[in-house]
Amino acid sequence: MSALRTLAFFEAPPPPSLPSDALAHRDLLRGDFWRRIPAYADVREEDFLDHAWQARNTITNASKLVAVLRDLVSAELIADVELGLARAPMSVRVTPYIMSLIDWSDPYRDPLRIQFVPAASRLEPDHPELDLDSLHEQADAPVPGLTHRYVDKALFLALDTCPVYCRYCTRSYAVGVDTEEVEKISLKVSNERWGRAFDYVAAHPEIEDIVVSGGDSYQLRASQIEEIGDALLAIPTVRRMRFATKGLAVMPQKILTDHAWTDALSRVVDKGRKLRKQVVVHTHFNHPNEITGVTEDAMSVLTERGIIVRNQSVLQRGVNDSADVMTTLVKRLGHVNVQPYYVYVHDLVKGVEDLRTTVDEAIAIEKHVRGSTAGFNTPTFVVDTPGGGGKRDVHSYEHYDRETGISVYEAPSVKPGRQFTYFDPLRALSADVQRRWAEPRMREQMIRAALAAAASA
Ligand code: SF4
Hints:
It contains 17 helices and twelve strands. The chain is an alpha/beta fold. It has a nine-stranded mixed beta sheet. The protein has a three-stranded antiparallel beta sheet with strand order 10-11-12, covered by helices on one side. The termini are far apart. The model has no long low-confidence stretch (mean pLDDT 93). The protein binds iron/sulfur cluster. The site of iron/sulfur cluster (SF4) has 10 residues, from loops.
């Protein structure tokens, strides 16, 4: 064989073809984007990038929201929002940063507006099987605010406030102030309650992994971050800790300008490392528009300090229920060094049925996301099963009846011998099946049939 022919044989294959939007995940919004909102038109950069300014100017009630919206949207939308707020299980709380990222010229379709500002005209009736604490976190809590469901893991709800309130919040039973719809249980900061939680963890050596959540770790004072970190790291059997915060997605300015808080977090992470224990941050981005140049700067600080950040998204209709949006989200997260960890099929949560998708849609989106980037940066799509079965891979159902929208899961390592059901939103079902759901006896029959089919699968 001639040398020329040998070379031709080893000719390098062409690189994978590059779709036109293949690098869109690298285009991060920078500049003074907040000035397009009349209420923030005169805000200086040093103020907008200051966490204290963001906190002071956070919208915390309907009249503050209307004051910002008045020069921005129609009177009809404002009326729609006011009605939506009156029916919502969550009180309103939105940072100026998030308000500035919403496209107010197309508010009904904007993925951030949908998550934080309810519009009554888009609401749908709750699913008939909905329960306020659908994940049974309270039933699995031996101490108020400490859920111990998985053998080696506990969830510590340190407080009940957040820098924003998300419409889809699973913990609407506790997070935020009471609304016209829901009277919340109290999980306020309390040394006595925290002490009982730490004592419980110390008395249960099987617990190796603690999630510190709430509410949101962003709302903890710097001294409280260290207090919790020190108390949990001092328990020899605790090996891993995660501070959960939505903050990076809604107020990345805090990482850049609240030096006491960021330093306190760094000290706990460093202390953990010296003890050969892992302390990481879990956060909560749902749409690529939530990741800006400010996020990139904040993540640069955490990355330089060696702090690992993982992301959990919630699949929401109109927000991220398309393969393209989810793929861009996953790649943009990777670009700023946030590791995509989970995508949750939306829990059954009061007042936000309009946001839920089907298990089938989650499976279809996952199929497209997988392969678009490295496997370690590909999230697992899960159903957090109502009734306390924990997170199950969407594909792992024992039975899934697409006609009735009932999927049945088992969780042998969590609650052996039990079955857990998840229900697709009624809107996705035929008119005939929707009529059957409206009839309690038929409903029971459909659920019984699904459980029996799963048992014999
Ligand atoms: S930040 Fe988390 S806990 Fe707080 S309202 Fe949003 S989803 Fe709920």
